């Protein structure tokens, strides 16, 4: 299986350690991974702003980069969901469909494809709050949703529970949105900030030392609030926690 | 068409200035959402009920013309006078004509979002008619000269103190009174006088049944019943999407409606009206006002399934923190943001963007409307129509160029990180970067992931 590593633009530029952790995590599980160097962005910022028509260049670039890959794995539920729902090509419709059906969010790939049941080296003796991001949860169905009458499950939680010493804190509103929302965070700045603040408060009230999740964009939003508050609480992508102790 | 200004963002910012009040609003609505969750969880068949309701509505919409004709025929046979209105103005005129025919000057009205949508109250008041909203929350906002801020909880943006002050001025209650029992009783005395003197009662319609020609009105206060039974003339106003095929379908909707709206098992009064009482006159006004346009659009047709329970508002993290008035439309919140641009695309172009697309609205919707996906689709329609702010379009065109050219992206990334490292105060200046008003930017790393990756490969190979 030829696995292509998709590192979204903002992770590439601002959070290289998340990319490094994702790569190391996959390699430690025996997966051979390639990183196509010319990849850029999934096109979501334009599409969510009402300009899906302007994401054709991104789509084309994405398809060109990952044409050789059987599957694509990325550490971001939101970008992966966008690709799954909207990756499109007039010139190569079959290739676009193939990639749409074979792109995975990291936790999804670990639990559903690799069926990871143990992470022997992982150790993280801290109180951790899990921010369940909306696109991962409700879009990719990575975990059960509080609105539905359905059995409870969570793929990220399953993985975090494999980490030695990790203490997962409960939250009052486990699937409340963080308020990032792509360009919403700029165009609805006041609301977005308040939502971020409220989300951080829930984690702090329950004694989290670290806030984690599968979406660095949500975590960037929460980090922005925490740094402004000069809080000692950190954010870490789930890949960084799953590789800690290695 | 240039720039609809983002009215919602501005109104939300103003609402958020009183953070304590915002927190209270947020928590109050979350409390209702939690009640809804408990009520839904108490029915193991909840998801099947939602599916059934969604399918009944989809079927009805696919044959809407047939069912409306059937409804009209059966209603007429029952002795109900049926009217058709293409838009809000026609609807208002029909109501006025009925008033004039009876030389009537006083109306008691129970809650009807359709009449809000058609701006019936200001129209009638201008014609010299007294219109009294009899739902307690609606009466409160009416006394404040405000529209409802929520379709089920019209005065949810107000605290007991506000009501006390308002009633002191208008109803002569004691100054500073905040006891809900006392204030409610004062409102009851006030409203009873209005009920007794009214010539005409207007109600909304929650469900109209094609098979029987009857309709159902749901209220928790019984005000629709009191009005309709006392007045000589009852006018029921409904959007054409409120029809359902058969009486047997009602159970599905009545079980879903109250649980989704307030967490109650059933609305306190679910009153069935079938024909006028002896000596009474009953009218049914069927209103389109853009609904057939929405029906003709496959992308947005699903929104006509809405039964106006308000669950999407209670769960919406944006609505909870910005208040109903920030949506500047009769039906606020996620569903309103789909319905409003259909009525006036330019005026409401900001609303489909007043969402993070978190998807919670879609999950609570008792008739399974794909609300957040329709908001996404509206954004595309608005983008193509040139109805979004020109700055946004410029920004997105720039991003398109940047991300379509990997070398440019790499260069810009490096330049951006260099800039943030050298001039952190500029990158974090709120006037240049709205992100930095309430949040800090991430610390820019020395190296991007791809630079690190290239270096590793070089080490391995070299």
Automatic annotation (TrEMBL), chain A:
Pfam families registered for this protein in UniProt: CCG
The UniProt entry's GO CC annotations, sorted and at most eight, read: cytosol
Q: Give residue ranges for domain Cysteine-rich.
A: 3-84, 128-222
GO MF terms here are: oxidoreductase activity
- Where does the signal sequence lie? none
Name under which the protein is recorded:
(Fe-S)-binding protein
Q: Which organism is it from?
A: Spirosoma endbachense
TrEMBL record, chain B:
Among the GO biological process terms of this entry, one is: lactate metabolic process
Molecular-function GO terms, alphabetical = 4 iron, 4 sulfur cluster binding; metal ion binding
Keywords attached to this Swiss-Prot or TrEMBL record, sorted alphabetically, are:
4Fe-4S, Electron transport, Iron, Iron-sulfur, Metal-binding, Repeat, Transport
Say yes or no: keyword Repressor present: no
* PROSITE patterns named among the record's database cross-references: 4FE4S_FER_1, 4FE4S_FER_2
Out of the domains of life, which is the source?
Answer: Bacteria
- Any single Pfam family the record assigns to this protein: LUD_dom
Question: Domain named 4Fe-4S ferredoxin-type: which ranges?
Answer: 296-326
Instruction: Say if the entry is tagged with keyword Repeat.
Output: yes
The record's InterPro entries line, in alphabetical order, gives:
4Fe4S_Fe-S-bd, 4Fe4S_Fe_S_CS, FTHF_cligase-like_sf, Helical_ferredxn, LUD_dom, LutB/LldF, LutB_C, NagB/RpiA_transferase-like
Q: What SUPFAM superfamilies does the record point to?
A: 4Fe-4S ferredoxins (SSF54862), NagB/RpiA/CoA transferase-like (SSF100950)
Provide the protein name: DUF3390 domain-containing protein
Q: Which organism is it from?
A: Spirosoma endbachense
């Amino acid at each position: 299986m030829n696995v292509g590593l998709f590192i979204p633009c903002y992770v590439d530029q601002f959070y290289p350690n998340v990319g490094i952790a994702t790569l190391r995590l996959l390699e430690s599980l025996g997966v051979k991974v390639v990183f196509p160097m010319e990849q850029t962005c999934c096109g979501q910022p334009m599409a969510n702003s009402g300009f899906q028509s302007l994401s054709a260049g991104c789509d084309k670039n994405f398809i060109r980069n990952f044409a050789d890959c059987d599957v694509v794995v990325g550490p971001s539920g939101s970008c992966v969901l966008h690709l799954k729902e909207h990756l499109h090509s007039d010139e190569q419709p079959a290739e676009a469909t193939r990639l749409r059906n074979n792109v995975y969010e990291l936790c999804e790939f670990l639990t559903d494809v690799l069926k990871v049941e143990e992470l022997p080296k992982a150790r993280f003796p801290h109180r951790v709050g899990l921010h369940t991001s909306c696109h991962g949860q409700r879009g990719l169905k990575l975990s059960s949703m509080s609105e539905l009458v359905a059995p409870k499950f969570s793929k990220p939680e399953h993985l975090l529970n494999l980490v030695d010493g990790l203490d997962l804190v409960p939250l009052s509103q486990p699937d409340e949105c963080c308020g990032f929302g792509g360009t919403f965070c700029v165009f609805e700045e006041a609301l977005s900030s308040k939502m971020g603040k409220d989300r951080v408060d829930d984690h702090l009230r329950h004694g989290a030392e670290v806030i984690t999740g599968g979406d660095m964009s949500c975590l960037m939003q929460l980090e922005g609030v925490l740094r402004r508050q000069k809080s000692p609480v950190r954010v870490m992508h789930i890949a960084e926690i799953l590789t800690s102790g290695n | 068409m240039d720039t609809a200004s983002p009215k919602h963002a501005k109104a939300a910012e103003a609402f958020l200035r009183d953070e304590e009040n915002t927190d209270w609003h947020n928590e109050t609505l979350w409390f209702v959402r939690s009640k809804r969750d408990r009520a839904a969880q108490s029915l193991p068949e909840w998801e099947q009920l939602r599916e059934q309701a969604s399918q009944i509505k989809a079927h009805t919409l696919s044959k809407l013309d047939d069912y409306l004709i059937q409804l009209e025929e059966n209603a007429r046979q029952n002795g109900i006078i049926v009217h058709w209105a293409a838009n809000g103005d026609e609807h208002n005129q029909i109501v006025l004509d009925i008033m004039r025919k009876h030389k009537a000057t006083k109306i008691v009205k129970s809650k009807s979002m359709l009449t809000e949508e058609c701006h019936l109250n200001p129209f009638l008041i201008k014609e010299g008619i007294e219109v009294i909203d009899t739902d307690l929350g609606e009466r409160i906002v009416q006394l404040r000269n405000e529209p409802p801020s929520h379709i089920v909880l019209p005065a949810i943006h107000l605290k007991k103190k506000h009501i006390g002050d308002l009633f002191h001025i208008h109803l002569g209650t004691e100054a500073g009174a905040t006891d809900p029992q006392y204030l409610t009783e004062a409102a009851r005395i006030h409203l009873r006088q209005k009920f007794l003197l009214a010539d005409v009662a207007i109600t909304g319609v929650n469900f109209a049944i094609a098979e029987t020609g009857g309709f159902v009105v749901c209220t928790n206060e019984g005000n629709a019943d009191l009005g309709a039974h006392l007045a000589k003339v009852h006018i029921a106003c409904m959007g054409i999407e409120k029809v359902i095929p058969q009486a047997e379908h009602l159970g599905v909707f009545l079980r879903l409606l109250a649980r989704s709206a307030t967490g109650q098992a059933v609305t306190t009064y679910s009153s069935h009206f079938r024909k006028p009482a002896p000596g009474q006159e009953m009218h049914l006004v069927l209103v389109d006002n853009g609904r057939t346009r929405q029906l003709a659009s496959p992308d947005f047709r699903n929104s006509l399934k809405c039964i106006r329970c308000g669950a999407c508002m209670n769960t919406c993290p944006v609505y909870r923190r910005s208040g109903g008035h920030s949506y500047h439309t009769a039906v606020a919140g996620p569903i309103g943001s789909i319905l409003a641009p259909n009525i006036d695309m330019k005026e409401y172009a900001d609303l489909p963007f007043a969402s993070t697309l978190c998807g919670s609205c879609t999950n609570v919707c008792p008739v399974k409307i794909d609300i957040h996906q329709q908001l996404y689709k509206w954004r595309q329609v608005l983008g193509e129509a040139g109805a979004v702010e020109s700055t946004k379009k410029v920004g997105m065109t720039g991003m398109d160029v940047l991300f379509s050219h990997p070398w440019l992206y790499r260069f810009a990334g490096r330049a951006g990180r260099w800039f943030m490292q050298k001039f952190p105060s500029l990158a974090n200046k709120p006037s240049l970067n709205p992100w930095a008003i309430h949040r800090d930017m991430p610390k820019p790393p020395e190296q991007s992931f791809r630079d690190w990756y290239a270096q590793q490969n070089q080490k391995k190979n070299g």
